[in-house]
Amino acid sequence: MGLFFVIFGQMINDEIRKKLQNIIRGNGSEGQGDSCTAIRNILLESFGTGRTVKSEFQSRAVIKEKQAFFLKSYAEKESLWMQSLPSGCDYLTRGGESEVYLSANKRNVVKVNDAIYYATWMEYFNSLVIHNLLFPSTAYSFLGFMDVKNDLCAVLLQPFIEGEQADLADITELLTFNGFVNTRRQDYYNKEFGLLLEDMHDENVIYRQELLFFIDTVFYIV
Which domain holds residue 171? Predict the structure, then answer.
């Protein structure tokens, strides 16, 4: 396991640490041209940010609804509103929060996500940006928004990783090596950044060629 320990460790360098701290403090991310960061910055300007308090999840539904209305309006103005998925997509599976499709080129997956695990859309895009910083090999690209059964959904593109399901012990060892303490089951907490990383079971991490690829993550700033 030494190879992917080294690679993962190098990802949390001083530059990444500074960017993570900016996100956690609720600051805008400058100098980053990726699409997920762009949407996060727009939400931040209009709604600010807040830490996750699980007991307040339901009470923040009004905020999430306002953000959904704002994002749909923004998407329509900026040609980011999608009537359908990219052509040639083939349905693969349904996860906890996403429908997953294989793209026409067979090198990416398209995920349609309703952000059900998050109290607000701001929290959802925080999680995406954090994922992209820590796991660039499986980084998300934002394609647009669409309506699915009257719910706003984000449409994302992610590299398609083929391999085996990772061993839970390897996931724990790797995350512990990088400052994430196992709190219960497959949930982890990083004290330095005040980050929760939840539901890191074997189906959300792929093992290939002595590397772990994190394909589905749920981050909360607490």
Answer: 164-221
